[in-house]
Amino acid sequence: MESDPETLTVVAEQVAVEAAELVRDAYESMLAGERVAVDTKSSETDVVTAVDTASERLVRERLAQRRPGDAVLGEEEGTDGGSQRSASGVTWVVDPIDGTVNFLYGLPWFAVSVAAQIDGVSVAGAVVEPVSGRRWTATRGRGAWLDGRALRVSEPASLDVALLATGFAYSSERRERQARFAASILGRVRDLRRQGSAALDLCAVGAGWIDAYAEHGLSRWDWAAGALVASEAGAVVTLPGEAPELGDDAITAAAPSIAAPLREALRECGAGEV
User: Fold this and answer.
1) I want to staple 185 with a disulfide (CB 3.0 to 4.6 A). Which of 89, 241, 242, 269 is the partner?
2) Quick one: average pLDDT of 41-66?
3) 232-259 mean pLDDT
4) pLDDT value at position 104?
């Protein structure tokens, strides 16, 4: 069974597209008045729907057919066999709906995210938007694409004209710290965006739709595919644990022209205390 990154990217895209079709059908049914079963996880604002569960199970079924023996780490059902190691060395990291709250509100900014990692490093990924049908893909060392068009990050002249995206935690206590941080960094950039999907924010950096992104508290499935898209499009990416001065669970992605000044501004604005 081949595990080269290009082959894995094809599988990631095919599986993500199938799951996105399931999510799109459920979304359209919901907009037509059909009730969607909802539960909560870490807090009342941290929601999971029956559609999240169905989407992940479909991804697991398809991966089992195409890549038997690979491990799967999913947001809703954890890791197959309780371990992230597999005989092939490949672990699939799955977010069945990144942006579940947006999904529930009918806001069409959510996606299915599927990435293949080897030794904890993303080598292939796909982020597929159910409503628009857009397909973001990336292969380590080979580039990133939106519907087959090569992506390249923006080139802002300075930090003060850069558009920065971020997100907030489910814990109200941490949200208060994040609000103080956001108020501080807002004076250093053009503006802030909070769109509700980490995977799509990272992809947007890759497309040049925003200049940078910074957030705390993400799980591996939130960033595994999107961070690869951003990186392969030329962004400077720091993953959780790589920039301790910004916080152990901070992730950033930025156009190279502002990466260094952004990192310093984040530190000065208290990212490490978030």
Assistant:
1) 269
2) 91
3) 98
4) 95
Query: Model's pTM, two decimal places?
Result: 0.95
For residue 134, give the nearest of 124, 142, 144 by alpha carbon: 144
Tokens read off for 38: 């909802």
Q: Summarize pLDDT for 82-104 with one digit per residue, the tens.
A: 444 577 899 999 999 999 999 99
DSSP assignment of the chain, as one string? ----HHHHHHHHHHHHHHHHHHHHHHHHHHHTT----EEESSSTTSEEEHHHHHHHHHHHHHHHHHSTT-EEEETTTEEGGG-S--TTSEEEEEEEEETHHHHHHT----EEEEEEEETTEEEEEEEE-TTT--EEEEETTTEEEETTEEP-----SSGGG-EEE----S-HHHHHHHHHHHHHHHTTSSEEE--S-HHHHHHHHHHTSSSEEEEES--HHHHTTHHHHHHHTT-EEE-TTS-GGG-TTEEEEE-HHHHHHHHHHHHHTTGGG-
